[in-house]
Structure formats: C-alpha cells, structure tokens
Amino acid sequence: MRTLCSSTLIGEFLLIGFAGLVAMKDPDLSMGTVWTVSGVAMFLCLVLCGVVTRPGGVALGWALQIALIASGFVVPTMFFMGVVFAALWWASVHYGRKVDEAKARFAAQSEASAPDAA
Fold this sequence. Notes:
Largest sheet: none
Distance between the termini: 33 Å
Strand content: under 5%
Helix content: over 70%
Shape: elongated
Order of helices and strands: HHHH
Structural class: mainly alpha
Number of helices: 4
C-alpha cells in the first residue's frame, strides 16, 4: 500500500505546486498566501508518504483529498483534478491493501513450506 499511496501523493505534490502557479495570477490573492497554503499542502504530501501505513495515515490522506477538491474554489480546474486524485487515492488504498494481503499470504505459504524442503 505504501508504494501506491506514496506515488499518488508525489503526483499531488506536483499538482499542488502547479496549482499554486496558476493561483498566483489571481489579483485578490497575495503571493505569500498562495505559497504558504501551497507549501503546507505540499509538505503534508511528503510527510504522508512516510506515515501512510501508520494509524490515521489514510484518514489524513482523505483529508488532503477533500482539501484538494475544495481548492477548486480558488482554481476551478482543481475541482476536476481533485476528484481525479481522490479516485487515485481510493484505488491506491484499496488495491494497495490487496497487494499487502497477497504478500502476507505468500510469505506465510513460503514459511510453511520451508521446513518441508529441509
């Protein structure tokens, strides 16, 4: 799960950076505000890469997905991109858990058959 979720989060890191560049064109927003919000969100993406398998990591990822969709109020394209990345996040969590379960089954089978080989 860690690999799939981290890949999605790195994609979001880049997306948030590009969205920050687009948001700078809005005359109602200061550059400091845009980069503070974008920087915090980008930092959260990086931190989540390390803690996604810990308790609450997936929930924090979902909170990030909601914030990404909500950023569409500032950069309208982010409504669409936020939904796309929320779907990728769901797939990463769902299929990542399946891969982890399959790895655990394989390890258990290998461990069980190891004494027979000796």
